[in-house]
Design goal:
This protein is of the alpha+beta class and 264 residues long. It is 59% helix and 15% strand. β6 and β7 form a beta hairpin. The longest helix has 27 residues. The protein is elongated, with a radius of gyration of 24 Å.
Amino acid sequence: MDGLDFNLLEGFRLLDIIDILLVAVIIYYIYSLIKGTIAVNILLGVGLFYGIYLVVKQLEMRLLTEIFGGFISVGSIALIVVFQQEIRRFLLHIGKNISLRRKKFFWSFLGSRRTTQQDRSEEIKPIIEACKSMSKSRTGALLVFSKYFDEEYYQTSGEYVDAPVSKRLLESIFFKNSPLHDGAVVIVDFRVMTASSVLPLSDSEDLPPQFGLRHRAAIGVTEVSEAVAVIVSEETGEISVAKDGNINMNLTPEELEKILREEL
């Protein structure tokens, strides 16, 4: 018995340990991305389906084995279709971490981050003032800050604007009698690219029931992209920020400015 244990340990390599750790990390990331969403129920259903297949195969129930086996043979394609949003979020999460590390190295190499932040603060100011004003008047608003402009996605679901950000422009768009007040404003590099854009709603089951379409759309767009969304509640005037599928609520204008300076 001791000789058998020794042989097993002898065949266990350092690469096997690394292999197990990498698989554990991947499983953790996948779980963190689908936690609290309907994808968990789908994954449980897939696991149950595969378990039944193994049982009927062991019992040599040929007809059921053929039926379940046919589904299993195309299972990888079906999983890609069903979990396309989760796969997209997973790849975006990996790409974002690589991008952040590259930017940190870039700024540390040039040593000019502080100057850039000072320049950006002037561009952020009209956004903060607009959000503060709309919060006081309880004007509902949804602003999406994207790193790039996806024409095929945003332009087809909203009105193309392409104008510099200003307090008056944002207030005019979200004025309750404005034809563009419904939907989101998409801002790229401090330019309003589109207004009245339709965004994907989050399918998370953990969201509070009082969340309206604006909050669900803000969370939804940050689940499938690297965007940052700012929401002004029409009912309470509360300012919130969504990022990576999470939402930070009841922010003051000062807190909003701090977050935007860090993210933009």
